[in-house]
Design brief:
mainly alpha, 197 residues, globular, 2% strand, two-stranded antiparallel ribbon
Amino acid sequence: MPMPRPEQAPTTAPAPAARLQYPPPPAPPADNSVPPPPLPQHVQSLATQAAVARGPTQPAVWFEHDFSDWQRLLQSVQRQPGQQQITSSWLFMPLIADALLPAHSAQAAFPFQRPPDWNQLTGPLRTGCATHGITAERVPLDGPWHATATWQEYVLNTALSLELIETLAALAASCQSGGGWVGVQATLAAQQEAMMA
């Protein structure tokens, strides 16, 4: 199952508390080597963004998605008839932030209450990132709290098993189609059942 595409760089995203400039970041390693190389000094990283954050903004809207509450977030990511495909940075960036940043920094960036089984994704992602040397200092941003699609995919594809990547894609698709957060275990079980059929 192909991964839903994350958003591209924002054109009118709200500025963070301290104004950062977001020059074009380097591409992730083409050969998927790990760890990724250190970033040039002029490129902002996830760690830099966290260091200048001053807590959540109110309302917590990012790329037109409402992060103030889990249910509001799910409503804001549902695709409406005739609407272009909604991409998945709304899901991928909070997971990456939770895996790579201290809890207070990730919560400041994306202040919604995490669903009960969220740690079934962030735990393996955190472990996989640590194993492969992927750190917040080495994930570049192209806008406030946003990494490019290729960087999001590099982090997720490098750090997670194929089974969890497929689960993540299925959860994103379910939320965007209006099916809601089915749950990590239920999605994994459904995928395993489909493979055995």
